[in-house]
Specification:
alpha/beta; TIM Barrel; two-stranded antiparallel sheet; 33% helix; binds NADP nicotinamide-adenine-dinucleotide phosphate
């Protein structure tokens, strides 16, 4: 394949267990726009072109197709299971049945274990796939330390049983982490969080790093294809931010690649999504060449717009004031 990237040339990060993880992965959420087949074909092509980290989740409804292409990789190439780093996530409606959810992901992905298994959201609040932005589930409730820890204990059991090798949290805030980290028998190895130039989350990022938890940045390009329910008129498009556009012109690349170079040089692991071969190849290749200068890194840092794109309003409980309540903006857990 043309433009194949040697996985050895892709920078790595070290988890607190000492294990290495590639510094760029492929996202697999089709944003209600791309079919499971398109996504799984991209997973196959991406692995053949050099990707070794694939970010999956049961709610993306394509793990069975991804499992098929993983088998194809193992049977048709000399790439071995141990060379891949596969993540998955327990969806909100399975917090009381994590074992069952993980068994299903293992079966769908056709794997004996998952490298990193996340609690996708810290609430059991469920929305139907493909729902609209104003859809609300009357059973939704605020974050509860006890309920979250019950879910986390089940994740710890998955590690003890050898079904997953690391566990992680996603969509957390500092107040929530402060409440739960002291209670963990097994510390999260990674934290998945929204992270792109227009929404850098510097405090949460620093908090994770200082606790030995690897940040994994989702929507690293600003998720230009995200579902309608995740769009508002105030949203900033990262690839149109003047700083990103000017730096892209200087490097003669698409602005998307500047977002990814910035992410890797800052220290989070971006997991860009694309089903288009030239895009996913350039998304991996860009971190192996032509880095940003310190001055460019500083310029992007200053360009932060604090513009959250995935506000999560479909997870709101009755009585919540607005999406801000999900993110503990007042410095304390809201609604608990
Ligand atoms: N933990 C969580 O709660 C959570 C939440 C959201 C996402 N995620 C994970 O993060 C992954 C990435 O997030 P995302 O898919 O929302 O957003 P993203 O990676 O920021 O954006 C993906 C879109 O960017 C465009 N793109 C990709 N590469 C490009 C390139 N080289 N040049 C120009 N455009 C490019 C494509 O748009 P077109 O399709 O229009 O070409 C693609 O669909 C997801 O797939 C999922 O695995 C996790």
């Amino acid at each position: 394949m043309e433009n194949k990237i040697n996985p050895a040339d892709v920078p790595k990060k070290k988890l607190y267990t000492g294990e290495e993880i590639p510094s760029v992965g492929l996202g697999t959420f089709g944003s209600d726009k791309y079919t499971p087949e398109q996504v799984s074909n991209a997973v196959y092509g991406a692995i053949l072109s050099g990707y070794r980290l694939i970010d999956c989740a049961s709610v993306y409804q394509n793990e069975d197709r991804i499992g098929e292409v993983l088998q194809r990789v193992f049977s048709k190439t000399d790439i071995k299971r141990e060379e891949l780093f596969i993540t998955s996530k327990v969806w909100n409606d399975m917090h009381r049945e994590v074992l069952k959810s993980c068994e299903k992901s293992l079966k769908d992905l056709q794997l004996d274990d998952i490298d990193l298994y996340f609690v996708h959201w810290p609430f059991p609040n469920y929305h139907a796939p493909g729902c609209s932005g104003d859809s609300r589930n009357p059973d939704s409730k605020p974050f509860s330390v006890d309920e979250f820890m019950d879910t986390w204990r089940q994740c710890e059991e998955l590690v003890e049983k050898g079904m997953v090798r690391h566990i992680g949290m996603s969509n957390m805030t500092i107040p929530k982490l402060e409440a739960v980290l002291p209670l963990c028998k097994i510390k999260p190895a990674a934290l998945e969080l929204e992270c792109h130039p227009g929404f850098q989350q510097p405090e949460l990022f620093e908090y994770a790093v200082s606790h030995g938890i690897q940040p994994i940045g989702y929507c690293p390009i600003g998720s230009p294809s995200r579902p309608e329910r995740d769009r508002t008129s105030e949203d900033v498009a990262d690839t149109q931010m003047p700083e990103i556009v000017e730096i892209a012109e200087a490097h003669r690349v698409h602005p998307a690649l500047i977002c990814l170079k910035w992410a890797v040089q800052r220290g989070q692991i971006p997991i860009p999504f694309s089903v288009k071969e030239p895009q996913y190849i350039s998304n991996l290749k860009c971190v192996t060449e032509d880095p940003l200068t310190e001055e460019e890194m500083g310029r992007i840092q200053k360009a932060d717009k604090n513009c959250r794109l995935i506000k999560g309003q479909v997870f709101l409980w009755q009585g919540a004031a607005g999406w801000e309540d999900l993110w503990d903006l007042g410095g304390e857990i809201t609604g608990a």
